[in-house]
Amino acid sequence: MKVSNLLFGMLACALSAMPLAALAEGPIVIKFSHVVANDTPKGLSAEFFAKRASELTKGKVKVEVYGNSTLYKDKEELEALQLGAVQMLAPSLAKFGPLGVKEFEVFDLPYIFDNYADLHKVTQGAIGKGLLAKLEPKGVTGLAFWDNGFKSFSANTPILMPEDLKGKKMRIQSSKVLEAQMRALKAIPQVMAFSEVYQALQTGVVDGTENPMSNLFTQKFFEVQKHLAITDHGYLGYAVIVNKKFWDGLPADVRAQLETAMKDATEYANKVAKEQNDKDLEAVKKSGKTAVHVPTPEQRKAFKKALLPVHEEMASRIGKDLLQSVYKETGFDPSKL
């Protein structure tokens, strides 16, 4: 699709959607677009939010969920939201760096969170609220953070130590931090849309990738990757966002009901993410198509040491004060590695 046609289509959708909030005779329609499968944590949570929104507003709001890139792909969806062609998204946190809010790339730093408890101190605390507020000047209102899970490396050769990824073409999202991460491992970062990854792995365009188990399993990447190392080296999460003009234009009582629905959906999202990643890892093991390696404490420490320089390299980009605030909140001490 040409850019001009894409923009035309977005604008047409935006214009047609503008009066919805003001029409008393029909429900307010929220188009919620995402790029992953419907049975992933994000897909399930989007459906949960749609149901709760309908219940709490007594049918005043209808949330239409469009998964698996059926409306927009990775590179299109944020522009579509800003134009009002779609009202709600849950992009991965790596998407906000290219949008101009580089602070969100703190979540891409390898091994900055050791577990969900440390992570939630940030996403559910003052730091998280401050980060969401930085989206407002972009015409975007941040509503919540949703977990997906911790990422692990996969490839067609064994991954036991950092040097095993040397020279490998590794698919990443568009993120300067993730590029630096792969370079620290002497791998070759390859930015690619999520919808293109399976074919790229299958044909050898890329050698490997990094994903939480729910993405690896639902997208069937394990079918075209012979080896998986449970490195849990990085976090993949989402920010649920909405077009600011649309959100501010909602009746106050409806907006309050939707905020409650989002709070409920966030609790559900974080619970189902942990459960589904555990379940999908077992499914990958049972498939017999991918050899699964759990690093020893020594191997995990080797990965941490290899990747820690990325923190220092990216500190000026992300913000040194923000980085130190996260360290303080989670108790992370780089000097102990």
From TrEMBL:
Residues 1-24 form the signal peptide. InterPro entries: DctP_fam, TRAP_DctP, TRAP_DctP_sf. GO terms for biological process: C4-dicarboxylate transport; transmembrane transport. One of its GO terms (cellular component) is outer membrane-bounded periplasmic space. It holds the Pfam family DctP. CDD domains: PBP2_TRAP_SBP_like_1. Keywords: Signal, Transport. Belongs to the bacterial solute-binding protein 7 family. This is C4-dicarboxylate-binding periplasmic protein. It comes from Accumulibacter regalis.
